[in-house]
From TrEMBL:
Organism: Nymphaea colorata (pocket water lily)
Reverse transcriptase Ty1/copia-type domain span: 2-90
Signal sequence segment: none
Tree of life domain: Eukaryota
InterPro entries registered for this protein in UniProt: DNA/RNA_pol_sf, RVT_2
Protein name in UniProt: Reverse transcriptase Ty1/copia-type domain-containing protein
Length: 90
């Protein structure tokens, strides 16, 4: 990089056309680190299978539905997401 260069931000990423894509890309990276794999048939569907059973995560805009066989796995996933995003359990 170049040193002693300053850039003036014209507009924050929030509200730009690229915002949803950037958020979803970041979200996909985070949930893959937690062991989820994105469905090839529906890109808003993420599935995790392990010894505790299957956990399913569905994303719609900025809402997430999390269901699975293990209450502990769901709880662990919620805690993992809270470390990376601001969340609210409704």
């Amino acid at each position: 990089g170049e040193y002693r260069k300053v850039c003036k931000l014209k507009e924050a990423i929030y509200g730009l056309k690229q915002s949803p894509r950037a958020w979803f890309h970041k979200f996909s990276e985070v949930v893959s680190k937690c062991g989820f794999a994105r469905s090839p048939l529906d890109h808003s569907l993420f599935i995790k299978k392990n010894s505790r059973g299957m956990t399913v995560l569905v994303v719609y805009v900025d809402d997430i539905i999390l269901r699975g066989d293990s209450d502990q796995e769901i709880s662990d996933t919620q805690l993992f997401l809270q470390k990376h995003f601001v969340t609210k359990d409704l």
